[in-house]
């Protein structure tokens, strides 16, 4: 059984999802990623939110929805321009992931971001024997990150397979009603 950890750089990931004009059910995504029948056990999932003190409250409902879908929420609140400019947010994610992978003995890290600042982290994890998979959004992939990972999970394929499954269930329900 492979132990899976999921990390989303949420606003970065959501920006690509929005531009692709698709909608992701995050709870279903976690079920899909941690499929026990496939020998994959979801250990933990984290969603990182980069906020500033003026947007913290406006994002509260979104954060609660993501948390309700099964993600542990990590907030980075920037109180100054300096904190935003010096990538403290990304540095905290990198440190957290290194601890998370080591402490929980993660075999596979599933990562959702298009930010190339994470390239050295993903390479380091791969060099240490952790399988790294990237959650990819068609036409918004980062080729540099795609080049270092060992697997790519297409959100578009996940959404299409989920839609077909829902249509199949709807069809079977309609058939029963007749």
- Strand/helix succession: EHHEHEHHEHEHEH
Largest sheet composition: 6 strands, parallel
- Shape annotation: globular
Taken as a percent bin, the fraction of beta residues is 15-25%
Number of strands: 6
Radius of gyration: 17 Å
**Count of DSSP helices?**
8
Largest beta sheet: strand ordering: 3-2-1-4-5-6
* Mean pLDDT, all residues: 83
Distance between the termini: 43 Å
Share of residues in helices: 40-55%
> What is the structural class?
alpha/beta
Low-pLDDT residue intervals, each spanning 5 or more residues? 166-171
Gist?
By secondary structure, the chain is an alpha/beta fold. It contains eight helices and six strands.
Structure explained in plain terms:
The chain is α/β, with parallel strands linked by helices. Helix content is 48%, strand content 24%. The protein has helices at 10-19, 26-33, 60-68, 81-85, 88-103, 119-127, 143-148, 155-177; strands spanning 2-9, 40-52, 72-78, 108-112, 131-136, 151-154. Helix 3 links the parallel strand 2 and strand 3 (72-78). The N and C termini lie far apart (43 Å). Mean pLDDT is 83; it is low at 166-171.
């Amino acid at each position: 059984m492979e132990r899976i950890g999921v990390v989303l750089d949420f606003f970065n990931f959501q920006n690509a999802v929005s531009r692709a004009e698709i909608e992701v059910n995050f709870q279903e995504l976690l079920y899909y990623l941690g499929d026990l029948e496939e020998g994959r056990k979801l250990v933990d999932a984290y969603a990182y939110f980069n906020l500033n003190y003026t947007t913290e409250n406006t994002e509260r409902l979104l954060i609660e929805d993501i948390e309700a879908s099964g993600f542990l929420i990590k907030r980075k609140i920037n109180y100054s321009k300096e904190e935003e400019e010096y990538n403290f947010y990304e540095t905290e994610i990198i440190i957290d992931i290194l601890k998370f992978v080591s402490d929980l003995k993660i075999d596979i890290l599933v990562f959702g971001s298009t930010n190339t600042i994470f390239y050295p982290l993903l390479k380091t994890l791969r060099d240490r024997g952790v399988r790294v998979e990237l959650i990819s959004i068609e036409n918004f992939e980062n080729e540099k990150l795609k080049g270092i990972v060992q697997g790519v999970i297409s959100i578009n394929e996940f959404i299409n397979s989920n839609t077909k499954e829902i249509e199949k269930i709807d069809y079977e329900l309609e058939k029963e009603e007749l």
